Amino acid sequence: MGTFEVPPAALDEVVALFRDRVVPAFSRHDGFLGYEAFTDRDSGCYVGLSFWASREALDASGDTAREARDEAAALGAVTVGTPRILALAFDSRLPLAGGG
């Protein structure tokens, strides 16, 4: 999960960067499962979540992720904190294990 502060006027460019360039670059890595992006247009907040089959697959994409952050920075996006690696605890959209 990566969070950026983006000048609101540049938010569409940052969204396009991730949609049109970063996601296809991630897609070339084995184990890439998908990407979701969330924005707050009033404040210029952008949060991107990438999904991977394994920690190893995520780790193998490190250079691509660094390039994405650099390209976003060139558009005025400032990374908030450090990217976080989180494990799924549960997803209400998926059936519960054990037949629940």
From TrEMBL:
Pfam families reported in the protein's UniProt record: ABM
UniProt domain ABM: residue ranges: 2-63
InterPro entries the UniProt entry points to: ABM_dom, Dimeric_a/b-barrel
Segments forming a coiled coil: none
Identification of the protein by name: ABM domain-containing protein
